[in-house]
Design a protein that fits this description.
By secondary structure, the chain is α+β, with helices and mostly antiparallel strands. It is built from four helices and seven strands; from the N terminus they run αααββαβββββ. Strands 1, 2, 3, 4, 5, 6 and 7 form a seven-stranded mixed β-sheet that branches.
Length: about 150
């Protein structure tokens, strides 16, 4: 039992300095994502998203990398403001999990999407040390009694 714990425990253990640097890298990538989405920067967004990226939109629709880029390219998704708060970054080896709150003003393929959201974004670091976004999910924050 001790041998099993020691072997698996080391998989999750990261030196403190490495975790600190990893958090800074993810913070910079989160800001790069925010800037790319606000300015419709397709090239920057393409570089941030993994080829097998998959999102779940606030309306429950699955969206691939190609679909996300097409929505930005066509103007179907446009943000006029995006303020992020309450960001938490957790590192698990080569995976980073980011949760945040976002105050959004903008439109998406389904129409106006202005409001408050909670989201989760997942990054994975490839063998070359490059972090890519592999997953994203957003949920609208509704006030008690608020209708859809």
């Amino acid at each position: 039992m001790v041998t099993v714990f020691a072997a698996t425990g080391s998989l999750w253990a990261m030196p403190r300095a490495e975790k600190h640097e990893g958090r800074h890298q993810i913070e910079r990538l989160e800001e790069a994502w925010r800037n790319a989405i606000l300015h419709g920067n397709i090239s920057a967004m393409d570089g941030l998203l993994a080829d097998d990226y998959m999102a779940i939109t606030p309306t429950g629709i699955l969206q691939s990398k190609e679909q996300a880029l097409a929505a930005l390219r066509s103007g179907a998704m446009k943000f006029s403001s995006l303020e992020v708060s309450d960001r938490k970054i957790r590192l698990y080896g080569t995976t980073a999990l980011v949760t945040s709150r976002a105050e959004v003003k903008g439109t998406g393929p389904e129409g106006d999407m202005s409001g408050a959201y909670r989201y989760t974004r997942v990054y994975v670091r490839d063998p070359h040390g490059v972090w890519k976004i592999v997953s994203f999910e957003a949920s609208r924050i509704r006030e008690p009694g608020e209708r859809r």
